[in-house]
Amino acid sequence: MGVEKLLREEVTGFGVPGAMKPKYRLEKERRRSDLVMLDKNENPYGFSPQVEKALLESIRYGNLYPDSAMTELSEAIANRYGVGEENVLVGNGSSELIDLLAKAFVAKGDEVIIADFTFFLFGQYVKLMGGKPVLIPLRDWRYDLEAVAAAVTPRTKMIFVCNPNNPTGTIVTAAAVEKFLAQMPPDVIVVLDEAYAEFVTDPAFPQSAGYLGRYPNVVVLRTFSKAYGMAGLRVGYALAGEALINCLKRVVTLFSVNALSQAAAVAALTDQEFVAKSREGNRTEKEYLYRELQSLGFDCVPSETIFILVDLHRSASEVFQALLDRGIYTNIFPPYPQHIRFSVGSRADNERLVAALREIVE
Q: Is the entire prediction scored with pTM above 0.70?
């Protein structure tokens, strides 16, 4: 059709993404009520009762536009990390903030360094703005910060470091990040995407909010989707120096976070006990899955997240389909044809997964 000729050059290579349907929609379509969703890294423990209470109370204001400055939520996040409100920007999930970073800073021909096996949206938003993703191979399933530093050129505008990395679940340590940041030119923006940080148990993980005062080119991304169980409410936030936050504010979408989600996020921050329970449940279930998966002859990449990347030593696509036939949703990745990723679910869901895998193997 003629209208396709009107597309921007950067968009012509993009396909239409497949629908990511929620469990209740898929169960309706497939006419079954026992699907196990281990493909989207969702919190199997729901969300805090405080979140539900805030949602119900804020419904009465649904006829009013939300606070576009997200003042109360920004203040709550700032207090949580001991930074100023001017160091916080809230977005419609951390995915919107990645988009804003590309819109604000990436111009045609700019280079942006990412890992060759990491969160797909980094490269997509860079390409959308005409930038060039520079892919650096992982080393031992984690970001190779030495190789990333060596790849910086005068054309480098930004670097994305997913820590813990999605989809491998591995981290880079505080010592490695400190050494890396000290090497970075001040005109290269370093984005630390820490969507799964609340689940990390390794004490070597960096306390990245502390970088803000020392590195004005650093942005830390966090989300309410994982540890707080609010994936459907879409709230994320960036922590950065005031000058960088003000740059991002120039390209924000007005009212991108609705009033109910803002109220829910404020309430979620007050219930750190829920986060602790989610973290402990995840730790316990990961140990169960490690044990059972290894007994089946699979190798697991040690994960600091709510998912596990597993080497099946056989065709992942065949196992993926066999699981799907049994109502269990997982993820596979074309560059690694023997690997599959499972979200860490509830004990009941994890037992279903293990039983199905045992049946498939046997």
A: yes
In angstroms, the CA 265 to CA 235 distance is 7
The 10 Å CB-count burial string (b at 16+, else e) for 169-200 is bbbbbbebbeebbeebeeebbbbbbbbbbbbb
Q: CA torsion sign, 246 to 247 to 251 to 253?
A: negative
**pLDDT digits over 8-32, tens only?**
888 888 877 777 788 888 888 888 8
CATH architecture of the region 19-46+273-361: Alpha-Beta Complex (3.90)
Q: Which helix (H) or strand (E) holds 102?
A: helix 93-105
Which string of DSSP letters, residue by residue, matches 10-44? GGTTPPPPPP---HHHHHHHHT-S--EE-SS---T
**Sequence ranges of the chain with CATH classification 3.40.640.10:** 49-270
From 190, 189, 207, 211, select the one nearest 198 (Cα to Cα). Answer: 207
Query: Residue 141: left (phi > 0), alpha (psi -120 to 50), or beta?
Result: left
**Is the preceding omega at residue 206 within 30 degrees of 0, hence cis?**
no
Q: Using one digit for the tens of pLDDT, what is the confidence trace for 246-299?
A: 999 999 999 999 999 999 999 999 999 999 999 999 999 999 999 999 999 999
Which structure tokens are listed for 128? Answer: 């959308």
Which ranges in the chain are annotated with CATH 3.90.1150.10? 19-46+273-361
Phi-psi sector, 339: left (phi>0), alpha (psi -120 to 50), beta = beta
H or E element at residue 341: strand 336-343
User: What kind of fold does domain 49-270 have according to CATH?
Assistant: Aspartate Aminotransferase; domain 2 (3.40.640)
- Convert the pLDDT of each residue in 168-181 to its tens digit: 999 999 999 999 99
Count of residues for the chain?
Answer: 362
> Is residue 165 a contact partner of residue 145, using CB atoms and an 8 Å limit?
no
Pairwise CA distance, residues 11 & 50, whole Å: 42
6 burial class (0-12, 13-18, 19+ CB within 10 angstroms)? exposed
